[in-house]
Amino acid sequence: MIEQFLLWVVEAVRQLGYPGIVVLMAIESSVIPLPSELVMAPAGYLAATGRMDAWLALACGIVGGLLGSYANYWIAARLGRWVFVRYGRWVLITEKGLERSERFFQRHGPIAVFTARLFPVARHLISIPAGISRMPLGRFFAYTAAGAGLWGAILIAIGWVIGKEGKRLTNERIYAYSHHALLILIPAVALLITVYVLWQRRRRSAGQAAGAREDTR
Asked: Are 180 and 169 in contact (CB under 8 A)?
């Protein structure tokens, strides 16, 4: 059944073209659980066979990601988390998962929006605490676009490699390659968060020291 769905997505991307990528990635980045692996990897596969431009597909994926993420952000900013707690079960959002994303956002701040885009489930939940805290939109869009762009590029590369190797695009192959990519990303993201947190602490300490010097004058 999954393979049939994958074939449908490939055909949908081929038939709908770039607007289809925008729509499907907007759905993926909202509360509807459509894996981005099943959208961007097929786009890369089609690019490998000359039926799509990889860079344009990536740009459409970023635009779709921004639209879907902003939908979550807007609902959270306007109505609050209760909407997702009460109705989230209909789209497989659990209160436990939401609480994890909130703790991650509170602990790491804006960088959480970027890093969460690289991991399943977290990528469409992280915009909820960002909306609740009313994170500045410019910063939200910048971090979302960066994270969506990096993960989208990885998925397009996976589809491209499978296509260039002349292999059939299957769910197992996509997720096998994605798993390897995550094994590399996890320590890289951990290092990035550590550097960011240390930089933020140093920046706050410098600000406090400057304030103390002003007070002594």
From this structure: no
Q: What is the pLDDT of residues 190-200, one digit of tens each?
A: 787 788 777 77
CB-CB neighbours of 39 under 10 Å: 27
Number of domains in the chain: 1
Residue 109 lies in a domain: yes
Cα–Cα dist 41/134, whole Å: 32
**C-beta separation of 69 from 101 below 8 A:** no
Question: pLDDT of 137-163, one tens digit each?
Answer: 999 999 999 999 999 999 999 999 998
Confidence of residue 97 (pLDDT cuts 50, 70, 90): confident
Please indicate, yes or no, if residue 119 is contained in any of the structural domains.
Answer: yes
C-alpha 43: how far from chain center: 17
CB distance 40 to 177 below 8 Å: no
Tokens of 51: 């039926």
pTM: 0.80
